[in-house]
Amino acid sequence: MKRIALLISLVACGGPKNSDSATEIPDTWSSLLAEHVDGGMFLSGWENPEGTLVMVGGNLTANSGRLGFWDGSTLCVEDDVTDAALWWLDGQGSDWYAVGTSGAVIHDNGSERVRLDVPTNATLFGVYVDGEDVWVAGGDTSTVRGEIWRMKTGQDWELVMGDLPGLVFKTWNGWFVGDGVAYYWNGTALEERHPPNGERLLTMHGPSADDAYAVGGLTAPVVLRWQQGAWSEVASDETCLHAQLSGVWVDDDGTVWVAGHNGTASSYDGSTWSCDTPPITAEHFHGVVGHKDQVLWMGGNLLSTADNYGTIGVHPAAAPLPQVSACK
User: Fold this and answer.
1) How many angstroms separate the CA atoms of 122 and 54, rounded?
2) Which of 21, 125, 210, 327 would you label with 146, given CA atoms 20 to 30 Å apart?
3) Is the pLDDT score of 209 beyond 80?
4) Average pLDDT over residues 185-211
5) Where are the domains of the chain?
């Protein structure tokens, strides 16, 4: 379907509207760019070739999806873009794909947006675009069994592997990580590369498929590194890593950025963790990604049974947005 500019009210966030305080930059390592943005959470982001950060999320309570577009100075949102909350997105060139609950898949080619749903009732938590292949991962949250699907250009979705012993949360560069499981696509089949001690892994990223970081945890934060064909544990820090982790992104300099519950927003340079103490928010961050000279954390009230709202953190600290507008 074609993009529809939705009429929504302006949402005040991150500081008094039209006040001098909205232009002040906090004296902290990071800051809240936007908070309590009604309409749903922001869960992940991907930068398009035009330099705009596209974010997806939604309202799990109302089962509706949302999009956000950040150009470095303004943020606009589209709400109720689909009847499914959107968990993740990835793209290549002008094309991007977003996935969510009940097998929902949105494909946007820059001029048209269509539904390309997977024939499953599972929640799709992750998507990765790899050349002509689009990979999605997820599972049935009631049975806690995982699924991995692939779609080649011009073809239908195919189930690569189903009924896996654990939900599969994310896919990246051949990797599939989840609830005590990890697999790698070697070009013809999935190899088992399960984490030590059955660790729960939420997502993975790094310089290459042979050198990457995976984060997660159930009651405590977990940071693992796959290198030289094996897993190793990355030194933790109780100050900066105080809850389970949901997101990881590694920049071109090799700095590891992580996102997690209870405001976990931290970086690791190979020897030292950096963060704000106390955290800039008690809300939960789900994804983290770089955009131009910034790093953004995306989340909201992820575990709430009430209507969801979005929260965005940023490094380095920046002035909070005086308002968020509807996309035109």
Assistant:
1) 24
2) 210
3) yes
4) 97
5) 30-326
